[in-house]
Amino acid sequence: MHLDSNVSSSRQSLDSPFNVKDLVRNPNFSLDKVRTLFAEYEDENKMKIEDEIIEDIYTQTNGHAGLVCLCGRAIEDNLISKIKGDRILSHGVWVRFKLISLMDEIAQYQTFKRIINSLLDSSAMTAVRFFRDYFLLEDVEHEVKIVDTDSADFLAAEGVLIPVTERAERAFRLSSPMVRNIVLQRVILKVFPFCPQKDIPYKGNSRNLDILMS
User: Fold this and answer.
1) How large is the average pLDDT for residues 99-103?
2) What is the C-alpha to C-alpha distance for residues 32 and 75, in angstroms, rounded to an integer?
């Protein structure tokens, strides 16, 4: 996935570790690398970001370098002003922001606008249906052996899926929960307006659905 900085480049300081480059081709960050990145930011700004925030960002982005930086930019642009005298950004403040505003912030970037518009195009209906049927409720570790090569390749080119290169047969998985949420909120709910807006409840630890009505 290529990320651009068209939205907030005028607000970005050159020494911020969260500058979003025009092209992000780096391998995914490890959790330790994400912690190091935020530690640099904490040192520069004489503040503390609670560990739960950093771990959540890593989980939601799957360590994707560009998405980690977008989350850092969102914190810098929206939450620093909410820090009190103790100079600690609390997990509670982050969770509220994530639930209410983070997807809006991420979707403003031209890269995500392009992905959303591409998936909303009528020519992408088969690929969107494929994503809904095979990936919408799964986590990033779930692998799908390809039954629709064209749709999988299209979604991979858009940065929604990633190929599982260590397998002999062709298989794909989600690129990250954050991208899945963007597709759900900005694409699936428009293309399939009766799609549930929350995760479908399962019975206990089984894979049986309690109920699904449209």
Assistant:
1) 94
2) 19
